[in-house]
Amino acid sequence: MNGHANGHANGFANGGAENIDVVIIGAGISGINAAYRVQTKLPDYSYKILEARGDIGGTWDLFKYPGIRSDSDFYTFGFEWNTWQKDHPIVPGSEIKEYLDQSVKKADIRRNIRFHHKVLRSEWSSEKKGWTLAVEADGHTRYIHARFLIVGTGYYDYNNPLKANIPGLDNFKGTLIHPQFWPEKLDYTNKKVVIIGSGATAVTLVPNMAPTAASVTMIQRSPTYIYSLPNSTRRWWSFLIPSFLQHKISRLAFIFLQRLTYLLCRKYPRQAKAILRMHSRRLLKGVLPVDPHFNPKYNPWDQRVCIAPDGDFYDALRGGKATVKTGIIKNVTENAVELENGEVIEADILVTATGLRISIAGGAELKVDGEKVDIGDKFMWNGSMIQDVPNATVILGYTNASWTLGADATALLTVRLLKYLDRRNAVAAVPRVADPSALTPKRLMDLSSTYLDVAQRLMPKAADQYPWKPRSSYYVDIWQAMFGRIDEGLESRMSIGEILDLPIALLSLPIVGFLALLTGPFRARKQKLNPQQTVARTLLLHVGYSILRRVVSRFSPLQIQSVSPSTTAEYKIYIWKKGLKDHTVDLGGGAKGHWLGNKEAKNVLIWIHGGGFACPANRGYFAFFGKFLSEMQAAGKDIAIFVVAYTLIPAGTYPTQLRQSVSALRYILKNTNRKADNVYFGGDSAGGNLVLGVLSHLAHPHPEIEALKLANGEEIGGATLFSPWTSLETVFPPQDTEPLGDLIHPLCAKSWAGGYLAGRARDNYTDARLAPLDWWHSVPVKKVLVTAGNYELLYPFIDDFQAKLKAGLGEDKVEYVVGQGEAHVAPMFNLMLGDKVETEQGKKAKEFFRELI
Ligand SMILES: Cc1cc2nc3c(=O)[nH]c(=O)nc-3n(C[C@H](O)[C@H](O)[C@H](O)COP(=O)(O)OP(=O)(O)OC[C@H]3O[C@@H](n4cnc5c(N)ncnc54)[C@H](O)[C@@H]3O)c2cc1C
């Protein structure tokens, strides 16, 4: 990797900045675990942990309040690779810190930690293909370059506590404490302590302060479920099993039981509530009523259920020095807290255990290509990467199970992602939401603590669809991390291989063109010797087709896109040359519609371009549209064209492009108030595939696309399909002649179809040719023209399809024309290559519309 590839893993390069393969921010539980995963699974990678503090542990180094401990079992809160070896599952903070120290030592991670290194800013540069981190260290700002970033900064602000919104708090003259900043020397012997809050911290403080303090009162606005758990896993039979095995079993058992209880509580909330109330009543033994103090308004696991190890919290209440008050604080005076119900609770010490101030990414500014990333606006890919942020995972553990389980799922996913990029020789991966309007936002963390509610705006969002769904459970997430689909929703930039290969590929084009020029004059002879041999009509087309065949078979989709103007750019060039006005519509979800002609025209032809879902529409398309419009106008036909610019592969995969095509039709019908029979479709090759998908969707709504119903009896005016790609074959019958008369090559099908399907199964929307005949019975379209060139590779498939379409839709509704000696999508591509002779297919299409309109 970096160290090996360019020899400056730990040295200084790039103008004094250090280069590291993976930078992990934060040496808390998440950062340490990620470091272990990187160093064991990616031994060739250089990595460093940058830690703002002077020690490891994060939370477990910072929090010092009395009794601080884990509130979930430590078999699952500890690391999978260093299972907790003691019998008590709930572990004091000091022991957690020792365990973390021992783990770091065991795995020899400390040498890779830079303490007192606070990351101020992380900026991704697409040009440099990496991150530059501005790091505050020793009073200076240093710069570090990294290829990949793992953000293990936890979820709260280390320096600023959450301001407690308590009336009159400033009046208080006693000692006011936030648990995050506990004064180590605080003496609370015989002091009256009031704790405001009802979360895990308050529930821990009560039993731990009660023996020393004069009194401890927990004031809660709303109660929490508090469950007593025996704090030992030792059983009478434990001596039969070796200790290490016993604790591994404990880990598995806790993972399973934790999940099971969570699911049961969610499924049977009433019963769970009743059990928890009974549990509290039994342990309270009458010292306090369950109502209202132990009767939360919400269901178990709407918020985290608090654990009381060996029932310590209930013991403290029964001991007489601790109590709970439930009510709203009216005012805080200089020595007491007044509740709205009139109760006054005296206090020498007031602890505001009201939550933490949420901060994602440790407060460091995040920028991508100079633009600040507003994390709250973004979706989270697989619970691990932020939408539109390349090469960075953000570790957020579980809230309904041990944090570390979720942290490990992200660490393992990161490792797999890096391996995946390496295998493809790719530089970067970026999570992209192809169609945000298709996603329903959900909370990332399925809990509703007050401080999480407050901070929703700062948190990334989840959605209702994979891979943007919130984390579900450890096993599902670990499976997903290790074996699940990793490319869904990820846009990989051109790999290093593709970048290096591009000039060679480009250089091969003039050579291919030159050879075609030399051999071109002999093509007629070739055909004479073998009548099956297809050849281009002119030398110009022969050279052009040869180059195009080379492009589609030699260039990857990303390489093609890197050297061709996008459909939108091509439209802009065209209107600029013709002196036309730009009438572009944002269709949402990354798609655009470009008007040509009078957009107020009565009729509109929605054109969905082809190019294997991989290539944009080229200038030949716009030349064709220009001619089409002027001929229509000359014939007195009132029609405009609406060209759809959809997301290409691999940025978008099926059914994104279909959804975008449907949204074009929805826009025309709903926003421009046109009747369906004034709306026509045109599509070529992969665009033909999409047109058929849209027509199918009208009759059989695609399960992942919002249904679009036409009014009863309404039909789309007509559709023309030039060389439609009607089934996504990747294997073609063996050819005994060279495809000299066509411009596509069998080799492109695999990467284009594969890129579009991205592992999904083919269906009637992707493979219209394979749909049963009755599929077409209800498809609402008046007439369809199918065209093909008899020299094109897809000819036999199109021939087969049109026969099926005639049988399904009706003989009288389908017209079929074969352009003799014509290539794939010849009406556009011949124009692109400068051949102005009208194709049979193009001519027929114009006749078709002249008759229809
Ligand atoms: C008191 C308390 C108890 C908890 N108990 C449990 C529990 O029992 N079970 C459970 O599942 N969860 C628990 N949690 C929640 C969570 O699991 C823990 O906070 C967990 O330790 C988080 O680990 P982490 O490594 O992700 O983050 P942290 O422990 O917060 O560590 C983050 C590290 O990143 C560093 N950092 C932050 N910003 C920067 C920056 N800009 N540059 C460099 N370094 C930076 C910090 O200094 C820190 O060392 C608890 C949380 C708290 C606050």
TrEMBL record:
| Gene Ontology MF terms in the entry | flavin adenine dinucleotide binding; hydrolase activity; N,N-dimethylaniline monooxygenase activity; NADP binding
Query: Which cofactors, if any, are listed as required?
Result: FAD
Q: Which InterPro entries match?
A: AB_hydrolase_3, AB_hydrolase_fold, FAD-binding_MO, FAD/NAD-bd_sf, Flavin_mOase-like
Keyword Ribonucleoprotein set for record: no
Domain Alpha/beta hydrolase fold-3 span(s) in chain numbering: 605-825
Organism's domain of life? Eukaryota
A Pfam family this protein belongs to?
Answer: FMO-like
Keyword Lyase in the entry? The reply is no
Q: Which UniProt keywords apply?
A: FAD, Flavoprotein, Monooxygenase, NADP, Oxidoreductase
Q: What protein am I looking at?
A: Flavin-binding monooxygenase
